[in-house]
Amino acid sequence: MLEWYRALIQLRRASRALNNAEPGNTRVRFDRQQMGFTMERGDITVVVNLGNSEFRVPLPEGHKVLLGSSEAETVEYGTIAVPADSVVIAAPAPSNRLSTP
């Protein structure tokens, strides 16, 4: 768990979008049926699955997974599939994923 928080702090420090608290810079969409939501802030997309089954949402073109609470998410044809009880953070960033040992 500590490594997860360290990775989140590293990502926040490295991202201009996550440090911009201007009102209107954040967009949130919630899917009641699947119990999942997406939050977009600048070029960062956060997908949270609070449900019991896979949550699939379109991912902006060119986005790659930077950090995920599980390694089980998949990106296919511009759609990300996030497993139950998982979080994924994506952005048009370097091809390497932040590591959480």
Secondary-structure map:
Blueprint: H1 2-14, E1 26-31, E2 36-41, E3 44-49, E4 55-58, E5 64-68, E6 74-76, E7 79-82, E8 86-91
Antiparallel strand pairs: 1-2, 2-3, 3-8, 4-7, 5-8, 6-7
Keywords:
single chain, 101 residues, Immunoglobulin-like, five-stranded antiparallel β-sheet, 1 helix
Report on this model:
The protein has 101 residues and is mainly β. Helix content is 13%, strand content 40%. The chain has one helix at residues 2-14, and strands at residues 26-31, 36-41, 44-49, 55-58, 64-68, 74-76, 79-82, 86-91. It has a five-stranded antiparallel beta sheet, covered by helices on one side. A three-stranded antiparallel beta sheet has the order 4-7-6, with no helix packed on it. The longest helix is centred in the N-terminal third of the chain and has 13 residues, at 2-14. It starts with a helix and ends in a 10-residue tail after the last strand.
State the gist of this model:
The chain is 13% helix and 40% strand. By secondary structure, it is mainly beta.
User: In percent terms, what proportion of residues is strand?
Assistant: 35-45%
CATH class: Mainly Beta
Distance between the termini: 10 Å
Q: How many discrete domains?
A: 1
Number of helices: 1
User: Can you identify the CATH superfamily?
Assistant: Golgi alpha-mannosidase II
Strand order of the largest sheet: 1-2-3-8-5
Global morphology: globular
